[in-house]
Write a structure and sequence with these properties.
Chain lengths: 145, 83
């Protein structure tokens, strides 16, 4: 329940299921979070199975999910265009609006993360799938990435 | 506003987001608007072509007044007034 009142108005809520742990989809998620942040939305991100790996301390994410044959082209373009890393997008969105990032407990365990200390600072808590379903039910915008 | 009118505007704050891609200019505008008082004018400089559609949509949704935009030497100047 993170709906704050801003100027007496309830802020719109976005719930994101982040299933993917690949650079391309994490970057897309980061861009979407930026848009939500510009709009002052309340955002809850639920990191599911494959997504959790990217949030474990010390693990580097290098895969891309889409067009794997064009990985070099994609990564070079990100660099040439001076696009922030997905972590920077997430961090910036958290600075600008209320973004909470929850790791699904099962997903964490799969990649060796069981306690908050195992995860990077972006993570707010570890949660169960029930909370994701409730959040999605209340959301104005619901995305699965 | 017409381009001539926009050219004569004195912005209270200029946000230079040139060289960044979407969502850079939008986020720069979002950060910049917080530093303005009601009724003040912000000018956003952007080289990202999406800005011309993105900023007016966002501004109107937030209740600010979108004043217009014009193309300068290889970039856009976008103007809005804080509500």
């Amino acid at each position: 329940m993170i709906n704050d009142l801003k100027g007496g108005k309830k802020m719109a809520k976005m719930t994101m299921a982040l299933f993917s742990g690949s650079v391309d989809k994490l970057t897309a998620a980061g861009v979407i979070l930026s848009g939500a942040a510009a709009d002052d939305m309340d955002v809850e991100v639920f990191v599911l199975l494959m997504g959790a790996r990217a949030f474990i301390k010390g693990k580097k994410t290098e895969s891309i999910a889409e067009l794997p044959d064009h990985k070099e082209e994609f990564l070079k373009a990100l660099e040439d265009l001076n696009i922030p890393s997905w972590q920077d997008f997430f961090e910036q969105a958290k600075e600008l609006t209320n973004v909470k990032i929850y790791i699904c407990s099962l997903a964490g365990k799969i990649w060796g993360g069981e306690k908050m200390d195992d995860f990077i600072d972006l993570v707010d808590d570890i949660c169960g799938i029930g909370e994701y379903v409730s959040s999605a039910q209340e959301a104005d915008v619901h995305l699965f990435i | 506003m017409t381009t001539e009118e926009l050219k004569n505007l004195n912005a209270d704050k200029v946000v230079d987001a040139r060289g960044t891609s979407c969502p850079g200019p939008l986020l720069a505008a979002k950060k910049g608007i917080g530093e303005l008082d009601s009724g003040q004018i912000m000018e956003i400089l952007s080289t990202d072509v999406g800005t011309k559609r993105d900023i007016p949509k966002w501004a109107n949704k937030k209740g600010h007044e979108y004043l217009g935009d014009y193309e300068d030497a290889g970039f856009f100047r976008v103007f809005m007034k804080k509500k």
